[in-house]
Design brief:
The chain contains 1 helix and 7 strands. The chain is mainly β and 145 residues long.
Length: 145
């Protein structure tokens, strides 16, 4: 589920975008039979943030991983679970707001009710494919010949 429309709404004769309501997170969190993964994504063009509502079904987990570049805020919307980091296991309950600093290692596990949470972080730049220029440095400093 994504927000409707691709552009931020603007008022007639004014270039400033208007605030808008994007999703009902309580309704998303109440979906007991929701599949694992993203239930909603921020998809508006021109945005500076990425945001997702994610569901982990009961007893499932997100394996240990590390985000090298982005700080992430995680807000638990429904259910409960645990955050495991190098300093131990931390309980996650509805309303828990957690900062996951860039470079941190963590895993998430859902308890018997599952775990639904919102993540927000700076938008990742899109990948760009560029043509190789003859004579320019390539991987490992090699030059294209």
């Amino acid at each position: 589920m994504t927000a409707e429309g691709d552009d931020l709404p603007v008022t007639p004769g004014d270039a400033a975008p208007l605030p808008r309501i994007l999703a009902d997170t309580a309704a998303l969190a109440a979906l007991d039979d929701a599949p694992a993964g993203a239930l909603w994504r921020l998809a508006e063009s021109g945005r500076q943030l990425d945001a997702n509502v994610v569901r982990i079904p009961p007893g499932q987990r997100v394996d240990t991983h590390r985000e090298p570049d982005l700080d992430v805020l995680l807000l638990v919307l429904a259910g409960s679970g645990t955050l495991t980091a190098p300093d131990g296991t931390h309980p996650l309950r509805q309303g828990s707001l957690t900062w996951l600093p860039h470079g941190s290692t963590r895993s998430l596990a859902a308890d018997t009710d599952g775990l639904t949470y919102l993540t927000v972080h700076r938008r990742r730049p899109g990948m760009r494919i560029q043509r190789s220029v003859p004579g320019s440095p390539g991987p490992a400093g090699d030059t294209n010949r």
